[in-house]
Design a protein that fits this description.
Layout lengths: L19 E8 L4 E8 L8 E5 L1
Antiparallel strand pairs: 1-2, 2-3
Length: 53
């Protein structure tokens, strides 16, 4: 994977096999949405992603 120049590699955190949870929020003018992604590298399960709208 190639890093984009706007995201420097210095200071990048490594998760070293730990589960990762990412939350995203879109605060629209009329509607808002929340998304969640969960990934556990030690699990054989696929990445879990869900959203509300």
């Amino acid at each position: 994977m190639t890093d984009w120049l706007i995201f420097p590699t210095q200071g990048r955190r490594s998760f070293a096999g730990r589960p990762v949870r990412v939350l995203g929020i879109d605060l629209g003018i009329t509607n808002s949405a929340v998304a969640e992604i969960i990934w556990d590298p030690k699990s054989d399960e696929p990445v879990t992603a869900r959203s509300t709208s």
